[in-house]
Amino acid sequence: MAEDGYGFALEFNRRYSMAHRLNSGIAPNCQVPHGHDEVVTVELAEKSNAGLDPETNMLVEFSRIKGRWFQWIDKSVDHSFHLGHKDPLITYFKENEAHLIPKLLVTPGDPTTELRAACYAAKLAAFLAEENPNFFCSRLAIQETPTNAVLFRPSFATDVVAAGAEHWWNRPDLSINEFVGSEN
């Protein structure tokens, strides 16, 4: 049985490569830009818990519910560089390599796996609200290394990232920062 009392849930994952750096100083080794091959796993449940469609014996066809999410991971997140919004490298890219700005995933503070999990969950919620409003993300996990993962349950932590359509994580487009126009 799925968490939160739901009889059925859908789970799928996607692997991507990324790089980031953390500037807070709490993890000195992470102040140097470095990369990870990560796997993000999401669990989706139906809000009404209505069960299977009697004609298809499915909650929803997989490609219908994961299509935009996989597109965002593959086109925007894969091989992106994750930086906090105050990182001086953003200025460097704006002044010297502006063509790479679309590949900068910018978070409201250090791009820790925990914060990125909250941003990803908000982005997925925006996709679901637009395309599959009867579903919600009940769990999102990011496997950062073979031995470290972060598990995020959106229903227990609603104020981790700011609300509002001005933030990329709340928009149902392919954006990963606020420096380039949103794409669909």
Q: Quick one: biggest sheet? A: 6 strands, mixed
Helical fraction equals 10-25%
Mean pLDDT: 91
Portion in strands: 25-35%
Look up the CATH topology. Answer: Tetrahydropterin Synthase, Chain A
The rough form would be described as elongated
Task: Give the distance, in angstroms, between the N- and C-terminal Cα atoms.
Answer: 35 Å
Number of H- or I-type helical stretches: 3
Number of strands: 6
Identify the CATH homologous superfamily.
6-pyruvoyl tetrahydropterin synthase/QueD
Largest sheet strand order = 4-3-1-2-5-6
The tally of structural domains comes to 1
CATH class: Alpha Beta
The SS-based structural class is alpha/beta
Poorly predicted runs: none
Structural write-up:
- The structure is a single chain.
- By secondary structure, the protein is of the alpha/beta class.
- It is built from 3 helices and 6 strands.
- It has a 6-stranded mixed beta sheet.
- A hairpin with a 5-residue loop joins strand 5 and strand 6.
- The longest helix has 19 residues.
- It is elongated.
Note the main attributes of this structure:
Tetrahydropterin Synthase, Chain A; single chain; 3 helices; 184 residues; alpha/beta; 6 strands; six-stranded mixed beta sheet
Quick structural summary:
With 184 residues, this protein is of the alpha/beta class. Helix content is 24%, strand content 26%.
Can you lay out the helices and strands and say which pair or pack?
Blueprint: E1 9-20, E2 34-46, H1 62-77, E3 80-84, H2 88-96, E4 104-107, H3 113-131, E5 135-143, E6 149-152
Parallel strand pairs: 1-3, 3-4
Antiparallel strand pairs: 1-2, 2-5, 5-6
